[in-house]
Amino acid sequence: MALITGYLVQGGQMLLILLLAPLITGWVRTLKAQLLCRRGPSLLQPYRDLRKLLRKDVVLAGSASWLFRVAPYLIFAAIWVAAALVPTFASGLPFSWTADLIAIVALLGTARFFLALAGLDTGTSFGGIGASREMMIASLAEPAMLMMVFTLSLLAGTTELSAVAQFMLTADVGLRVSLALALLALVMVAIAENARIPVDNPATHLELTMVHEAMVLEYSGRHLALIELAASLKLLLYLSLLSCIFVPWGMTTAGEDLTAYLTGIAAYLAKLGLGGFLLALFETGIAKMRVFRVDQFLGAALMLGLLGALLLFVSRSL
Amino acid sequence: MPLPLLLSLSMILLAIGLYAILASRRASCSRQIYGISLVICVILLGMALTHLLNAAAPVTLTLPLGLPWLGAHFRLDALSAFFLIVVNLGGAVASLFALGYGQHEPAPGRVLPFYPAFLADMNLVLLADDAFTFLFAWEFMSLSSWALVMAHHREPANARAGYLYLVMACLGTLALLLAFGLLAGANGGYDFATIRTVEMTPGLAALALILALIGTGSKAGLVPLHVWLPLAHPAAPSHVSALMSGVMTKVAVYGFIRIVFDLLGEPVAWWWGGLVLALGGITAVLGVLYALMQHDLKRLLAYHTVENIGIIFIGLGLALAFQSNQMYASAALALTAALFHVLNHSLFKSLLFMGTGAVLTATGERDMERLGGLIHPMPWTALAFLIGAAAISALPPLNGFVSEWLTFQAILLTPELPQWLLKFLAPAAGALLALSAALAAACFVKAFGITFLGRPRSPAAAKAQETDRYSLAALFSLAALCLLAGILPGLVVDGLSPAVGLLNGGAQLPAQQSQPWLTLVPVADVKSSYNGLLVLLFMALSGIFAAVSIHRFASNSVRRSPAWDCGFPNASPAAQYTAGSFAQPIRRVFGSVVFQAREHVTMPPPGDGRAAQFAVQLRDPVWDCGYAPLTAAIIKISTKLNYLQYLTIRQYLSLVFGALVLLLLGIALWR
Known about the structure:
Strand order of the largest sheet of chain B: 1-2
Number of strands of chain B: 5
Strand order of the largest sheet of chain A: 2-3
Number of helices of chain B: 23
Radius of gyration of chain A: 19 Å
Low-confidence stretches of chain A: none
Distance between the termini of chain B: 50 Å
Number of domains of chain A: 1
Distance between the termini of chain A: 43 Å
Number of helices of chain A: 11
Shape of chain B: globular
Strand content of chain A: under 5%
Oligomer: heterodimer
Number of strands of chain A: 3
Strand content of chain B: under 5%
Mean pLDDT of chain B: 92
Order of helices and strands of chain B: HHEEHHHHHHHHHHHHHHHHHHEHEEHH
């Protein structure tokens, strides 16, 4: 019985994040518009966009291959699985041991690999520019993220995300320099990986500085819907990751009763709302940077992550 | 009983090499040679697998060959059995591939005699149990592969590559010769059983380690001894390139492991591990950065071999560091990671080189700037190459990820080490490993994307056709193995255990077979676990769920039209991103530091009809700082000493006399 409930909760979490993902995108968009004194679209606009895209024909470039048509499903699957492995409202779910934090980072890498290939597939210059810049950004963001993983797992003694979250929740962690550095590195990586300002601009087209939007320029219809949904899921993944590691309060553990789960979900939603608000605030307050400044931004993230890990190699109490 | 059979099968391989000299003019000869090689490799593979999986006791054999007072010693233990699997798996698939690919060989007489001999020599290196037999087989391996590199010797680039290879191979063997001399000690017992019992002073042991690093590292492609590798590996026919890059470098790794972990015994000083770790980290990052700057597909792959050798040596360095501190459980993890990566790299590098061979046959091109769009005429080759590219980029759920994950887990155990320098080196090596993994993904997006995706950049690429069935069978057997090793890593780890135990004083990883759902749990399940099978299953289920629900409930129709490209459709294929432009951001970020990359743009003034010019200048730091000054110094000294060739008899005699006096003085002072 406990096993079946566990599976149900795991499945419920998978569906929850799928349903929540467009909402968080809508939330950030609305907040950004209001911070700029515009009215902004409705919170539900991303759902409407998805529904419309799903119903439209796919217009496929003449030079597109089978890879171009398979890639959206692969990207969506990889990101959904990765996002489902991040604890949201409860830790210790039945399949939480399937992949640890390193594997989650690598799953995001799988999605990025196929997205960049899809960008190159039609043989257009915009796809190429997006793919090449995305891989340059990833070549610094991924090591920075792994350094952050090192810091966490040295502290918690495990790379299992669920166990890390429980460690952060129960043990007397306190304020640590290494954790602060890891937080900073993770935030910087999250901004870059989600194509947010100042690294990339999610709202532009037809601009030479764009990265993510240039890669997906040739996609349309249901393929575009999947890619947009995957992008929303990725944003949700990073917000969940930040909240389950650095603000784990309110999270319950698997096997508790229904009230505990409901409290967990309420706390999770509050954390997401706050995260989205901070993201919108940050994005409104800063200007986009030139693409060849991004390496300095992410190089700093890598160095911060490495510094955090090194501090822990020096002393476990830092 | 297996050892005589293994040896006689290797002898048969040598014999069919001789037969090929006589018969290579006949058209059917190529099929015969590759067919027999395939059968023999499969038998050898089966025997090695049985030995390793049964964890059988080592068997030895002494034959009255070689040096009269020594004889030829052979031994089959878990370590050589594992490497025999790697060699013969690679050999079998390369032979299968060559059944089709070898038909296009313009000069079969230059390939067929050496190919089976090359396979036989690699087997003999692994079976050798005394220094003489080892070096003899090693040299034969170098020479037969050199002959294969020189198969197309009329191209000037190949001749230069062959020359450089020969020089570096000589240097490597010289270092190994000296290393074995030190290992054997004053009494000169050259069989490995005697060498294991010799007690060495720490200084001599360290010298032997460094000599072994030079000797095997020059064959494996460790920076800074890698210079010959990216020139020589691509020069050979593609199935031989696959063997050289995927398999021969592993024989070199075997040599290092055999000498350092087995013959030298316990590591004496902690800095050994630090040295190997630092070399591995530098090799990994430099190798992938070099690879990113290439636009010749085979050379890119060869540089990538350098990167993967670096990853293997990171694992070996960690194992040495742990062993020198008696942390055998952690050393078992590091060794498992290194050996797992040996197997993985042999799988996907062979796959990628053979895929390149198929492209080369179909188009006659290996310059990516003249390829493109090959996924349309060659969908199956493209699929196999894509699997190899994803595996080498360490993407789950394929096999490359598992070995890098294990290496990361080993690095996470390093805070327990007592030495400060190692404590700092380990996270730095971790950062280098992470950097090289991320750059490898960029490199293979480039390699696959520019070659197979987009639109054809030359008429040859537009007219390509799918490759033959033998080649496809070879490609897909390797692709399937990449997937299997990725989703069932626990079985591979269990298979490696006897070899790890042999090198690690009996300590090995806990058995993985009993884990639920075949999860990989290297240390303890509270610390880390990974389940490739479930990751694949979840990904497949979510992908299928998405596809089915969209096609059932939403739109299902597709319209073809010209590419949108922000309103610039029908641009010429030349407007696509090329290999050079794809790498440009990374060249700016990393290359301007490492390679002092400079871009020169010559833009004619408005109204001038001339074409604008763009040139990139890269400098090789290893060549500039290491080899160029060395060559210059050698030439300078030899020019200075040139007058010694024009002396009179009287002067020569006084030189001889002076040398004799000096030597005698030296001996008198030393005694």
